[in-house]
Design goal:
It contains no helices and eleven strands. It has 121 residues and is mostly beta strands. A hairpin with a 5-residue loop joins strand 5 and strand 6. It starts with a strand and ends with a strand.
Length: 121
């Protein structure tokens, strides 16, 4: 069984920073791409950032220059450093990993349960 757990959410004023973390545990053989998504109230879930196993990152236009994602392969963790936060960044943030679990022949997508970020003006 593979589980993802996010942490680091909270409330912050506009212009502030938060750092989210996501850790995977369980019978993991390898982790391929990792990603962060968010879902604001009444809106669809959207992609925020991704990072490949080799460390190549991509970002949604609305976070470029403000957010940065990184990973620690030894710890099965991914991070999202969020700077210059805006009220429109308010959402529940989810991590998503493509994990090749032990006993399986291919990788599958796993999701965390989300961590809430609230940015006040």
């Amino acid at each position: 069984q593979v589980q993802l757990v996010e942490s680091g959410g909270g409330s912050v004023q506009a212009g502030g920073s938060l750092r989210l973390s996501c850790a995977a545990s369980g019978s993991i053989f390898s982790i391929n791409a990792m990603g962060w998504y968010r879902q604001a109230p009444g809106k669809q879930r959207e992609l925020v950032a991704t990072i490949t196993q080799g460390g190549t990152t991509t970002y949604a236009d609305f976070v470029k220059g403000r957010f940065a994602t990184s990973r620690d392969n030894a710890k099965n963790m991914v991070y999202l450093q969020m700077n210059s936060l805006k009220p429109e960044d308010t959402a529940v943030y989810y991590c998503q990993f493509n994990i090749w679990a032990k006993g399986f022949e291919y990788g599958m997508d796993y999701w965390g349960k989300g961590t809430s970020v609230t940015v006040s003006s």
